[in-house]
């Protein structure tokens, strides 16, 4: 069974600085998707970034980028120029690529990011 | 924009009650999901549905059931609420066009069972 592990329950960063959130996963599959979702306090969870495992190039979305190390089964999220609005809980998630395309996600435990002014 | 609406943000019920959590999405998504979110455990899948009247158990289905009579609506039912079901419940929807489609989430329902 696939698992996703986020070993950092809490992180903090100074405004305008860079922070990296860690995520590791375990799978025997070769094709899959990985996601980072953001859940602001008392607000809706939204997708931050998505990575296809068969693509070697790391995904980027503005100030958000990932470091995808397939062999190491590592998928970290880097937030550059951190802003107060980045304060949230961040979840790493895995989706298996298969014939039964139900889109099921397996989530990590979450990392709460605090941004200090 | 996709909108996933959960009927209540906060709900307080008593042990033994039958509890209904409702979720509606407006984007004609085939897939709908119910998750439970607990501190330190992340999100765990309770049930999901890939079509009307179709459902499959997730990782923690015990004590729950679901209903999907219409494509846009997915209900989670606690047959006889217990205190260990106090939690945040999140509904999500997504397209069924290959894995990798993002899920869209509702605001969540914080349920307390007394």
Folded structure, characterized:
The complex is a heterodimer of chains A (117) and B (114). Chain A is mainly β. Chain A has no helices and 12 strands. In chain A, strand 7 (60-61) and strand 8 form a beta hairpin. Chain B is mainly β and 114 residues long. Chain B has no helices and 11 strands. Chain B has strands spanning 4-6, 10-13, 19-25, 31-38, 42-51, 54-57, 64-70, 73-78, 87-94, 104-105, 109-113. In chain B, a hairpin with a 2-residue loop joins strand 5 (42-51) and strand 6 (54-57). The N and C termini of chain B lie far apart (37 Å). In chain B, 39% of the residues are buried. At the A-B interface, strand 5, strand 6 and strand 10 of A face strand 4 and strand 5 of B.
Give the arrangement of secondary structure elements.
The complex is a heterodimer of chains A (117) and B (114).
Chain A: E1 3-5, E2 10-14, E3 19-21, E4 24-26, E5 32-39, E6 46-52, E7 60-61, E8 64-69, E9 74-79, E10 88-96, E11 106-107, E12 111-116
Parallel strand pairs in A: 2-12
Antiparallel strand pairs in A: 1-4, 3-9, 5-6, 5-10, 7-8, 8-9, 10-11, 10-12
Chain B: E1 4-6, E2 10-13, E3 19-25, E4 31-38, E5 42-51, E6 54-57, E7 64-70, E8 73-78, E9 87-94, E10 104-105, E11 109-113
Short account of what is shown:
The complex is a heterodimer of chains A (117) and B (114). Chain A is mainly beta and 117 residues long.
């Amino acid at each position: 069974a696939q698992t996703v592990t986020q070993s950092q329950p809490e992180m903090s960063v100074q405004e305008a600085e860079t922070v990296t959130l860690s995520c590791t996963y375990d799978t025997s599959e070769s094709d899959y998707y990985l996601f980072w979702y953001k859940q602001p306090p008392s607000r809706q969870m939204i997708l931050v970034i998505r990575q296809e495992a068969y693509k070697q190039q790391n995904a980027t979305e503005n100030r958000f980028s990932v470091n995808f190390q397939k062999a190491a089964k590592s998928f970290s999220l880097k937030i550059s120029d951190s802003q107060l609005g980045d304060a949230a809980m961040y979840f790493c998630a895995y989706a298996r690529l298969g014939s039964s395309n139900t889109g099921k996600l397996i989530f990590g435990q979450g990392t709460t990011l605090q941004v200090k002014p | 924009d996709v909108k996933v609406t959960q009927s209540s943000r906060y709900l307080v019920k008593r042990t033994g009650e039958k509890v209904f959590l409702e979720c509606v999405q407006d984007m004609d998504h085939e897939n709908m999901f119910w998750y439970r979110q607990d501190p330190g455990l992340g999100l765990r899948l309770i049930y999901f549905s890939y079509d009307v009247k179709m459902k499959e158990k997730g990782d923690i289905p015990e004590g729950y059931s679901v209903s999907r009579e219409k494509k846009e609506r997915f209900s989670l039912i606690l047959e006889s609420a217990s205190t260990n079901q106090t939690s945040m419940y999140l509904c999500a929807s997504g397209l069924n066009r290959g894995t990798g489609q993002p899920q869209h989430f509702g605001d969540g329902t914080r349920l307390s069972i007394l």
